[in-house]
Amino acid sequence: MKLIERIQKLSKKHNGLLVAPLAGYPGTQLTGTKIVDLIKNADLQAETLITMQKHFGFDIIFPFMDLSVEAEALGLEIEFHDDGAPDVREHPVTSLEDLEKFHVPDPAVDGRMKVFTDTIRFLKTYTQAHVNEILIAGYVSSPFTLAGLLMGAENIAINTLLEPEFCHATMNFATSCVISYAKAQQESGADNVVLLDPTAVLLSPDLYDIFVKPYIERVTKALDIPVVLHVCGQTTPIMKNLANTQVDALSLDSDVNLPKIMPLIPSDMVVIGNINPVKTMLHSDTKEVHAETRNLIKKWATILILFSVPAVTSPQTPHCKT
Fold first, then answer.
1. Calpha distance 272→252 (Å, rounded)
2. Which of the residues 14, 226, 261, 313 has an alpha carbon 20 to 30 A from that of 72?
3. E strand spans, the chain
C-alpha cells in the first residue's frame, strides 16, 4: 500500500489529519534523560518516545534523528554531546584506495545501528499491543549525504565536477550501506523509512539527476516499505528533481514556498513539513503556532509534520532543521 493511501485510511479512522512531529530530542525533558544516553540505549530511547506518544498522542513515531550512525558503523570518529546530536569529526575518503579500506557495516553488530533497529522493534511491539493504528518510522542517511560524510560535503560537491568516477564509486558503496541498514529497520518493523539528505542542496539540478536520483531509486526498489525523502533548506531549485525520485513523500523545510512548488509534486506523493522549527515552534506563542498550523492545513496538508527539535549539524554538513 502506498504511503498516501495508508495516511488517508488512518486519517478517516482518526476523523482528521494525522499529527507526526519529528520530535525525539525534546522528549528528554519529559523523562529527565540526556540525548547522549538515549542514542546509545534502545530501551531508554523507546521509553522516552513512548512517553511522548502517551503525553501528546501523535500518530507516527520517529526515533531520534542521528546522522552519525552509519558513519560511526563505518569506523569514522564521532564526537558525542550530552544534549545535542553527535558530530562526525573526520572525512577520510580522498581516493579510491581509501574507499577500498571500508566494508558495508552489519546492522546487527557494527556501531550503534542495532540501538536504532531495536528501538524500532520495541516501538512496534508497544504499538501493536496498545495503539495499533500508529505508524513507526525509521531514519537512514541518504547515499549522497553518507558519501559526503565519508568524503566531506564540500569535497563531494566539488568532485562531482572534477572526479565523477570517484564520486560514483563512493555513491555505489554508500548506497549499499544505506540499503543494508534500511532493510534492517524494515525487518525490525518500520512502516516507512526516511532518507535524510541535507547535503543534496549543494547540487545543481543536472548534477542531482546524475549523482543522487539513481541511487535514491536503488534504495526505494530494494525496500518493501514506503520511502520519505527529507531535504533541508531551500530546495526549490531542485524541486522538480526531488519530485521525480519515485519516493512516497517529500519532507520540505519552511524555506520552500508551497504554493509555488505544489504543481511540480505528483498527486500521489505526500508533502510533509513546512512549518518553521525555530521562528514558529520555538519562539512563537501557542496562539501563533496554532494559527500558522491551521493555515497550512487549510491550504495544503495531507499529513502534517511539526518540526520542533534543534538543528542537526556537523562541521561539513548543512543544517538539517528537524
1. 6
2. 226
3. 60-61, 78-81, 84-88, 135-141, 192-196, 227-231, 249-252, 270-273, 312-314, 317-320
Residue 215 inside a domain? The answer is: yes
E runs forming strands in 111-248: 135-141, 192-196, 227-231
Total domains in the chain come to 1
Instruction: Please name every residue paired with 136 in a beta bridge, in sequence order, or none if there are none.
Output: 61
Average pLDDT, the chain: 89
Q: How many helices (H) and strands (E) does the chain have?
A: 15, 10
Q: In this predicted model, what pLDDT tens digit does every residue of 146-159 receive, in sequence order?
A: 999 999 999 999 99
Extract the C-alpha cell encoding 199: 547535503
Q: Which of 134-138, 229-233, 301-305 has the lowest mean pLDDT?
A: 301-305
So what's the pLDDT on residue 318? 36
User: C-alpha grid cell for residue 124?
Assistant: 512496534
What CATH number is given to the structural domain containing 235?
A: 3.20.20.210
